[in-house]
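Project standup — Tuesday

K.O.: blocked on the structure for the chain from last sprint. Re-posting the sequence here as requested.
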Amino acid sequence: MTAAAPDPDDSRAADWPKLFTIGFMYMAQTFPAGFVMSLIPTLFRKNGLPLESFWVFSLPTIPYWIRWAWGPVVDTWWWRPLGRRRSWFVPCTVAAMLAYMSLALFEPTERFLVLITMVLILKSVFTSVQEVAIDAYVVDYTTARERPKAAGINTAFEAIGQMAALSGLAIVFDTYGWRPTVILASFLMLLFLLPAFFRKEHLPADAERAALERRGAGVGALVLPFRRFIGRPDTRIILPVVISGGLFTGALFPMIGPFLIDTGFSVTRVGVVTGAVLLAATVTGAATAAYLCDRLGPRTVNRFLAFTTPLFFAPITIAQLRGHEYDVVSAFVLLVLPTFNLAVFYVTWVNLRLGFASVIQAGTDYSISSALSRIGQTAAAAGAGFVAAKVAWSGYFIAVACLGIAAMAIAWMTHDRLQMLVAKRNAEEMETGFPAGERSMA
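H.V.: unblocked you, prediction finished:
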């Protein structure tokens, strides 16, 4: 008996309905997230909040630092009639929706900055658990051959969700105001998750057996996966990949809105440009990355990106240094290049993290790596405003490019060693039916 997902035959054709269901699950996460992490900072900047105060928008990501604590809980307990993963992401989605709706009580001005931040932190508690369950669902139900396609579809659907949040909600805000915008964003998050509510889950026998043993062992069994994760040699290699990738992926897009506000754009024009940039760059970047990873492998893709990243960031940097006056078209063209570069890297990065997770306790492994990536993203968000204020926007784009080059180089140079260790770990799990090292540590 193996520890693999229900159908581990990587030679079969991809299950596209399943992959699109997963895509909608990620859209459910990113639609309100795009509203909160991109549009809200844009609105605060328009209302005069100084860049040095933008560190506050990094605080709602802190609950994601400890999302690893939910991993063994999600992997161990569930309500069978609802399903192993739906038992968690359904109630957490409803709770997060209610938290989002409460934002309608406070206008996005400096007067309510603290209250809005507190609500967003509470929301993040629910969505951090939701993400653990959804990420584990993805690892459970995608084969190794499907994962590049899944990563590409997820990235594309995330982009579509964020485009709807940025462009659509920006227009709704300018037309109807803050309260209808927040309520609409809340309900759409629930709507996008509906396909997953009706898709039947399959519970692998090995996963259930391991969960039953952990339940019988009590709290100590919940600590064991963390001890094993920390002690594994593959963990020591994935850590710098995850953290450096978090720094790069968290640095660029949240500051595009404030950047465009500083160039004189209205909220609607900011929404149109950022939404179009995100959709065009991310969809094409995701498709490009999925194709290249399938043909060349993530290592070669990251090596190519590390050498070509300066070419993608140079146009916007030069335009800033020359005092370029932006219109919608020029802003789109100049911003779509670095965003495309980030999207291609993001797909390879997600693909590496999906392949790293153990299918027996996918929630634990993937949630720890995601939590560590959030630390990098929080650090990037906390420092972004200070960097932009000190070295101007041209210097900021140079700094983001340097973060990208570092993340790509680390992913490239550690790839072969990481894959060798993961293959060895997976072989042990397939032979024993338990996570690697669990028997020896118990």
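K.O.: great, moving the ticket to review. The chain has a mean pLDDT of 83. The chain has one domain: 16-196+221-427.
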